[in-house]
Design a protein that fits this description.
The chain is of the alpha+beta class and 439 residues long. The chain is built from eleven helices and 25 strands. Helices cover 27% and strands 27% of the residues. Helix 1 runs parallel beside helix 11. It binds flavin-adenine dinucleotide (FAD).
Length: 439
Amino acid sequence: MEYKNKIVIVGAGVAGVNAATKLVDNGYPGELITIIDMGKSPYERKPEEVMTGFLGAGGWSDGKLTYHTAIGGHLSKYCGEEKAMELMDQVITNFKRFHPKPEEVQCSNPEAEPDFIKPYFGLRLFPVWHVGTDYLHEIGKNWYDYLVSKGVKFEWEAKVTAIDFENQTGTVTVPQSDLEHPFEYDRLIFGVGKSGIDFGKQLAEKYYLPTEPKPVQIGVRFEAPQHHFQKLIDVSYDFKLYRKFEDKGVSLRSFCTNNNAAYVAVEETYGDHSYNGHAKKDEAYRNDMTNFGILMEIQGIDDPFTWSRELVEKVQAHGTGLYYSPSRKPSTTSEGDNVSAHQIDWMGLQVVAEYFQGYFEYISDFIGDMKKVFPTLEDDWGIYIPEVKYLSPEPLVNYSDLSLVTYPNVHFVGDALSARGITVSGAQGTYVAEDILKL
Ligand SMILES: Cc1cc2nc3c(=O)[nH]c(=O)nc-3n(C[C@H](O)[C@H](O)[C@H](O)COP(=O)(O)OP(=O)(O)OC[C@H]3O[C@@H](n4cnc5c(N)ncnc54)[C@H](O)[C@@H]3O)c2cc1C
């Protein structure tokens, strides 16, 4: 088949990179593919550039590849369970393929809920492949070299600032020089991740894109010495505790658990700080800490996006997020710097609780019940406030190829659509590429 369409991928994140890989692996000419990213190549990217550059947020993440259709955002709703698993397999295979030591990628697969967490919590059971942040850097370089060798063109430190869906053109601004240049496309893959969420929202407003509403997802990043949780970690490395209050429209889950060499990471969105976490595989970084998000999903709030943003804005002080602990201080990053957070006392926490408009009680109860299930925990923990997943209204797409219902040559993928993790984001990119290859 002779492929002629010029493909522009906005965002060299997990979704965009997997899409490009699927295309060139199957004979699509790399010369027809351009990937534009406001971050840097894997050779230039600095550790503090958490969200941007080759492999996007996934490139500096904890490298935990979840392997279940109920985790990491929506996939099976578009393509069905069986296809979703097959697409996730392809993403995991890519991470192993470019891994310098693929034999070290391991899968944990817990099989039963342990009795000691009942009746306080449920435990989500699902397999996870562990790649490790430090290997991700090497994976990124190998993967990038492969795509370049196939002719794929990259534009780094180049921000797409406008897209004209009607005329199939766009504008790239190079912040370093303030210079602009246009681009044209036949097919556009829009994979800007969380760092581009504002841009996605602007486009949705400009083109009146029909959207699906999303709930609020907000909470805190919890951190404590690992030994308190070891009994559960032995059952499930990336444990996901959950509980539901269906009558109140609230559910809580522990999210993205990091152990052994576990560090809290600051995310910057809309100029505010929020928190996430990552873990290193290299023993040199071992700090024997555990961190995870305690995230609430709240249904029934009008304009959940604005509600979350306003709350995040309020729980900032001195240009950063907040930290509360009955006994501890904020930790350091893997680079040895203090995690940016303003420490508050118990009174300060009561003010935070007010900002959460009654919902903070669910988090306090969650922590209170963890103290019962993990009795050594007592006051030996801290929380970074807030952790937030901005789920901007999801554009309505055609389920067969994730293209906008109103612009069928524009495909939304990854966190810009409905994903919340590496495997699902990569799988969505692969799904779109498979459709393009059919032409
Ligand atoms: C600290 C941290 C740890 C994480 N750990 C895990 C984990 O262990 N497991 C997991 O499954 N998920 C994890 N995640 C989430 C995961 O990284 C994301 O879900 C995934 O990377 C999303 O992929 P994506 O391709 O949609 O977007 P991203 O990977 O975020 O990539 C988007 C890319 O688009 C670029 N971009 C944005 N706007 C523009 C623009 N206007 N012009 C040009 N380029 C633009 C950005 O520079 C970026 O490179 C973590 C996230 C963070 C921040």
